[in-house]
Structure formats: structure tokens, C-alpha cells
Specification:
The protein is of the alpha/beta class. Helix content is 34%, strand content 22%. The protein contains 13 helices and 19 strands. The chain has a 6-stranded parallel sheet, with helices on both faces. A 6-stranded parallel sheet has the order 7-10-11-12-13-14. Helix 8 links the parallel strand 10 and strand 11.
Length: 440
């Protein structure tokens, strides 16, 4: 049996690609091992979306190269967005790597490994056009009771700061029947929470003459998966039809991850986002009117070129007024090749950090206040297993908490197995987490 060690970096969408690669490699006689020292093949699926991700990927490649240096028989192969973005530049910068593989050729890895050149070869096709399908083997790396369903690849939005269209290509939607087939297979494997993911979930089907509500209706009809979760929706494209469907279907989690990026209309114009502050105000009102208990998550960027103190104050005022459940914040950084890299004036790094800290501090208080509304109530919780903090507690999530990005529920009374959905009475609320016991 040939052995491999796979490192998957970046987002959940990238993780699905890694699971597909691992599935095809296992069918070709490869076996995954946890320790790099025990592997013949060291495989890295990289992220290349932003500079910190690029730096993380290079650091990981160099770390694994040390194992190859100790044992020259090992092979080091790098794939993913970093390869798709930088291509030939990597060959000169990373001679330790035996093969670089672009995204479109990831499913050909078993074939490519049979003729591994061993001299830093590059297999890369541009623009990226590949699309997963349910016939491809897949080895889940998540717990068996939850998984991701990647419904599109690429993106047609042209946000000035974003490199995804140049890396991943234009939008490509998977046929609804194919997605339903994969969802049925995942349900048979034990999945109870299925998170739909894409660069822009609301763009699904615009290239096929269909849309997200139609896909959801098919998934509801053809599976019995208890929790369907929607991640990464474009603010201007959240329709009343979608919200009405969520309100009518309890299996669709009352949770929406909608990256706003900012609230200032002037900043949003420079980002080439197709909405302004008034649109966001109306969106939040529509969501809370249609789905009153819906948890809202967003992502915000501070320090975008031209952002003023007035823009930051407007952002803080909106967060205080809107009382969003979950907010991720990151400082803007120039990306080579992006339109935003040429925009002026730049915000100094020190000022970016100050603005980041101000937003995070305000949102921490908002989050703690929002969680207080669960105290004394009973909520359904999907049990993940023993807590990462202590073996004396179980850990799980409500429908209002997405996996790996939001807080959790610490269960201090009762017993349950991973994958169980249990009723928990909430006794305490902290900044990001809840505490409670399983109801008898």
C-alpha cells in the first residue's frame, strides 16, 4: 500500500476538493496517514486567495520539505489555488517540490503520480474550468454527521479586492440532479447537517436557468437531512422567495452567512459591490420580518483604500444598531493583480489594526448580549463529541451556530453520542458560547 499525507489549507470549498482528491487516490491504491514521516507522498492543497494564506501555504510546503530532505525518497506535490495563481513562479521559488498541479488536473493525480518527473514539473491549465460531480469518489474528512456540499465553482462578481475569478474562473453551477445525488449519498453515510457552500451561493443556477430556491426544494424532497445550512450569500441577491422558503421549511437552518464587507456606500462602490447602506438596511429588515429567529453572520473589512474615520464610525454605528449574531473582521491588504491594489489613499497598517480592534471590541459586547436571549430556553443541539476544553463536557452547536466559525454549546449535564441532536436547556451565555444541560 502506497502512503500519503494530505494537508488541506484554506476554506471549506478547498477542503471539498481535498476530499475528492483523497477519494480518487484511495481508489488507486494510496492510503492516507497522519504523520508526514510515515508517508511516501506529501501532498499540499493550498489557498492563494490573500497574502496571509499564501504565506501560510509556503511555510507549510517548506515544513514538509524538511521530511523530504531527511528522506529523499519522499515526493512533495503541491496543488490548489496557490498553483493556479502563481504557476511558473513557484517552480523557481520552491525547487524542493517535485510537482505542481493546477486545479483542473487534481482528479488526474493518480495518473500524474505514476509518471512523477521529480524535477519541479508543472501541470496547469488556465482559465480554470473544472467542476466536481457526484460520480467522483470522496473521502470525508469532517465528522460523519456533517459535511459540505459545494454547489458551484468560480465567480462572476468582480469585487476590486478579490482574486477568486482570476484563480477559479467564471461561475459554473453543478446540475441540481447531481447535487441531489450527492446529498442522498451523504445522508446514507450518516450526515445530519449539510452546509451548502459556494463563492456566491445566491448566484447558483444563473448559468443553468435555475436558482437556489429550486435547488433547496429538490434537496428537501429527495433527502431527510435534518439541517440544511446556507453559507456565503451575496447581499444584493437574497430574494423574498428564498426567505419565504426558509420560513416555511424548518429543516433549512434559520441562519444566513452574508458577507457585507462594509456598510459605507462610498467604500462599497470602490469595492465594486452592487449595493449600498440603504440596501443593507432593507435586507436586514426583510430577513427579520420573514424569519424572525434567523441568526445573521457577516464578514467585514477594515482599512480599505480611502476608508475614512467617518466610514468606520458608520460601520460601528450599524453594528450597534443591527445587533448581528456573528461577525468576522479582517484588515484589508493589497493583492497583486487586483484593482484595489492601485486605489489610493492607503490606510497605514497601524491604523488598520486600531480599526480592527474597535470593531471586534464592539461586536464582542453585541454577541454576548445576543446570546443572553437563549438563557432559560431549550434548543436543539447537534452533539460534536467531547469538548476540546475538557473531557468533562460535551460540545455541540445549535442551528444558529455554523461549524468551525461560530461559538458552541458546552453540555454539562446528560449523555449523548456524536451526531445526536438533543434538546438542551441553556443556563449560561458567554461572549461567543453557551452552556447548558440535556433536558430529560
Amino acid at each position: 500500500m502506497k502512503t500519503l499525507h494530505l494537508t488541506s489549507l484554506g476554506c471549506a470549498k478547498n477542503l471539498v476538493d481535498s476530499e475528492m482528491m483523497l477519494g480518487s487516490l484511495e481508489l488507486s491504491g494510496w492510503q492516507a496517514v497522519e504523520e508526514p514521516a510515515a508517508a511516501e507522498l506529501l501532498l499540499v492543497n493550498t489557498c492563494g486567495f490573500i497574502r496571509p494564506a499564501v504565506e501560510e501555504a509556503v511555510d507549510e510546503i517548506l515544513r514538509l520539505a524538511e521530511y523530504k530532505q531527511a528522506d529523499p525518497a519522499k515526493k512533495l506535490v503541491v496543488t490548489g489555488c496557490l498553483v493556479q495563481r502563481y504557476g511558473k513562479d513557484l517552480q523557481a521559488e520552491l525547487p524542493e517540490v517535485d510537482l505542481f498541479v493546477g486545479i483542473d488536473d487534481q482528479q488526474r493525480l493518480p495518473e500524474l503520480l505514476n509518471v512523477l518527473p521529480g524535477n519541479g514539473g508543472l501541470v496547469l491549465r488556465q482559465p480554470c474550468r473544472s467542476l466536481l460531480n457526484s460520480a467522483m469518489p470522496r473521502r470525508l474528512s469532517t465528522p460523519p454527521f456533517r459535511s459540505w456540499l459545494k454547489i458551484t465553482d468560480g465567480c462572476n462578481n468582480r469585487c476590486t479586492y478579490c482574486m477568486i475569478p482570476s484563480i477559479r474562473g467564471d461561475l459554473r453551477s453543478r446540475p441540481a440532479a447531481d447535487l441531489a445525488a450527492e446529498a442522498r449519498a451523504l445522508e446514507q453515510a450518516g450526515v445530519k447537517e449539510l452546509s451548502l457552500i459556494a463563492q456566491d451561493l445566491t448566484a447558483y443556477g444563473s448559468d443553468l436557468g435555475t436558482d437556489l430556491p429550486a435547488l433547496l426544494r429538490l434537496l428537501l424532497a429527495e433527502t431527510s437531512i435534518p439541517w440544511l445550512r446556507l453559507l456565503y450569500l451575496y447581499p444584493a441577491s437574497v430574494t423574498d422567495e428564498l426567505l419565504e422558503l426558509m420560513a416555511a421549511q424548518p429543516r433549512i437552518a434559520p441562519y444566513l452567512d452574508i458577507p457585507f464587507q462594509h456598510v459605507s456606500s462610498s467604500v462599497l462602490r470602490r469595492m465594486n459591490r452592487r449595493y449600498g447602506l440603504e440596501d443593507l438596511e432593507q435586507l436586514i429588515s426583510r430577513i427579520r420580518s420573514a424569519v424572525p429567529d434567523c441568526a445573521l453572520r457577516t464578514t467585514l473589512m477594515v482599512g480599505f483604500p480611502g476608508e475614512t474615520e467617518a466610514d468606520v464610525k458608520e460601520l460601528l454605528d450599524c453594528l450597534q444598531r443591527w445587533q448581528l449574531d456573528h461577525v468576522g473582521v479582517f484588515p484589508y491588504e493589497d493583492e497583486d493583480g487586483s484593482a484595489a491594489a492601485d486605489l489610493l489613499p492607503k490606510v497605514p497598517d497601524e491604523e488598520k489594526q486600531k480599526r480592527f480592534d474597535r470593531v471586534m471590541e464592539l461586536q464582542a459586547a453585541v454577541s454576548q448580549e445576543r446570546l443572553q436571549r437563549y438563557v432559560g430556553k431549550e434548543v436543539d443541539v447537534l452533539v460534536e463529541g467531547l469538548s476540546q476544553e475538557t473531557d468533562l463536557l460535551l460540545e455541540g452547536r445549535t442551528r444558529f451556530q455554523a461549524p468551525e466559525i461560530d461559538g458552541c454549546v458546552y453540555i454539562n449535564e446528560g449523555t449523548a453520542s456524536p451526531g445526536d441532536i438533543v434538546n438542551v436547556r441553556i443556563a449560561e451565555a458567554h461572549i461567543y458560547d453557551l452552556v447548558g444541560g440535556i433536558s430529560s
